[in-house]
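Quick start: read one record
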Amino acid sequence: MNVQSLFAEAKAAGVRLYLDGDKVKLSGNAEAMKALRPKLAPHKAEILAYLQSAERAIGEFWPWAPYLGADDVQRMRTELVGIIERLADMGSWPDEDRDDVLTRAVRGPLADLLPNLHHFKEKLTEATAAAAARAAAEKRTWRFDR
């Protein structure tokens, strides 16, 4: 029997297998757990390895957001830093202000990542539109001082 079929059997019986440190734990119906233990015992090392690899692959879970793995979080933080730096350059922010905002954005809790990304994207869109409007207005103005 392979690990996936053992997990399927446990799930069908209403039993959940999970890690508690380096131990495999069971939760669910006591009778079902008692019936499954003899089937699971010979495969304990495989189950442990499977759960550990699954735990490493899983990123942060946010019930209100899409699934995000570690790579997704890193990509989003990199994107956020780039947006903040462009916004700071466009707005001629002092270095201290830029560094403060970057520090708060990067070191803030993961729960703030998506809202921060959304907020700073909106601000960058507004700043880009304002800069484009200024540039267009400068090109179209008549100058009578010649």
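The two ends are 89 Å apart (CA to CA).
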